[in-house]
Structure formats: C-alpha cells, structure tokens
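Sorry to interrupt, but I need a hand with the structure work. Can you supply me with one protein entry, sequence and fold together? No commentary is needed, just the two lines. Leave the record below and I will have a look.
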Amino acid sequence: MGMLKVYSYKGCDGCRKALKWLDAKGIDYENVAIRETPPANRELETMLNAYDGNLRRLFNVSGGDYRALGLKDTLPSMSKKDAFDLLRSNGNLVKRPFLIGEDVALVGFKEPEWVDALES
C-alpha cells in the first residue's frame, strides 16, 4: 500500500474518527495539517480521478468558506485549474479527512469505504 498521507484538521470530528480508526488498525500514516499544508496539485488530480472527475467531491461543501465564496453557484462552471488553485490556497475548502496513498484515495470518513480500501 505504501505510506499513506492523511490531510486533517484537529477541529474536525470526522478527522479525529479517521485517525483513531487508523491507529486502532495499526495502519501507518503521515498526518498533515490541511489548513497549513493543503494537498498538492498531483494529489488533487489523483483524488479527482478517484471520484470520476466530480470536483464537488473535493470541496468541504458544509464549511463556512465554501458558503462565503458562493461556491455552490460558481463551482459547476469553474475550470479544474481554478478549482485546484482555490483548494491549494485555502485548506478549509478541502473535504477532509483527505487520505491519499499509492493505491488509495478517499475523502471524508465513512468507515465501510475505508475498510474496503485499506483492509482488503
């Protein structure tokens, strides 16, 4: 599987659950503070491919920054480059936890998805 990288935020309940789950399973990972160090373009591209090109899946659609920027209305017509620029410039906009590895790419913590991806 290679080394996993988890972009997370300490105030995020889903992130805490995901990290606790990884620890309980004994799965090694690097935890990266998503606000300070948002995912790189290549990681965003990998995640976008994992979600069949659905840009909305990469965004924290319930976050205040998403609402403040009016992304509900502008995201559907936004270019991939502009969306990636936004995500890289503001880690609050990135759906979290954001788990990326050699053969895995997941956003959000849904335990059944993580079990399928990491325990099989």
Notes: The mean pLDDT is 95.
